[in-house]
Write a structure and sequence with these properties.
With 178 residues, the protein is mostly beta strands. It has a domain at 56-177: Sandwich (Jelly Rolls), CATH 2.60.120.1340. It contains 2 helices and 11 strands. The chain has helices at residues 17-28, 32-35, and strands at residues 41-47, 50-55, 57-61, 65-67, 80-85, 89-99, 106-112, 126-128, 135-143, 149-159, 166-177. Strands 3, 4, 6, 9 and 11 form a 5-stranded antiparallel β-sheet that branches. A 4-stranded antiparallel β-sheet has the order 5-10-7-8, with no helix packed on it. A two-stranded antiparallel sheet has the order 1-2. The longest helix has 12 residues, at 17-28. It is rod-shaped, with a radius of gyration of 23 Å. It starts with 16 loop residues before the first helix and ends with a strand.
């Protein structure tokens, strides 16, 4: 079923059940409210006069983990999450972070596995240069022009230089697929 452009009515025109079904019932079934079949979802534009419902997803990894790696690595518990989307993703992420020495910054950020456009780097990651004290950091990324797909987004972790340990806790990824 597709959206039908509303008819222009004239005075004294006969109204049929078929016209009412097309103009009222069928068009109402194409609204975002009628398309919402599960929560939490939100309506996004799928094409001209068409909406699609996308599932909002969140995953939290609570165990504390650490790394001394100077390149982005996966750590126990991720978090990671797979989502279906129409070609774009809004990703919100956060973690409690600290470092064990004054050597350099420590980083955490999401990446889309298997997609070069979704690679993690220092310009899209959260960072901390605080020694000993644990602080919460958060960020967001809007990835677009991905093409419709189902992708896995995973948090990666690293430090700026050898001799530093990055410590991470309460790691969160929330994905709003578009």
């Amino acid at each position: 079923m597709a959206w039908s452009a509303p008819k222009t009515w004239t005075a004294e025109a006969n109204l049929t059940a078929s016209e009412l079904n097309t103009q009222v019932r069928d068009n109402l079934l194409m609204t975002a409210t009628a398309q919402a079949t599960s929560a939490p979802s939100w309506a996004v534009t799928a094409s001209k006069n068409a909406v699609a419902m996308r599932q909002i997803k969140e995953v939290i990894a609570t165990p504390q983990v650490s790394t001394t790696s100077t390149s982005p690595v996966s750590l126990s518990g991720g978090p990671s999450i797979s989502v279906s989307h129409g070609g774009a993703l809004l990703v919100l992420f956060s973690a409690r972070i600290h470092r064990t020495s004054d050597m350099s910054a420590v980083y955490a950020g999401p990446q889309i596995n298997g997609k070069p456009k979704g690679a993690v780097n220092t310009s899209t990651a959260i960072a901390s240069a605080v020694t000993g004290e644990v602080t919460r950091h958060g960020g967001h990324i809007l990835w677009y022009d991905l093409g419709p797909d189902t992708d896995t987004i995973e948090m990666k972790y690293w430090v700026n230089s050898a001799g530093t340990t990055g410590v991470y806790a309460e790691r969160v990824i929330t994905v709003l697929p578009l």
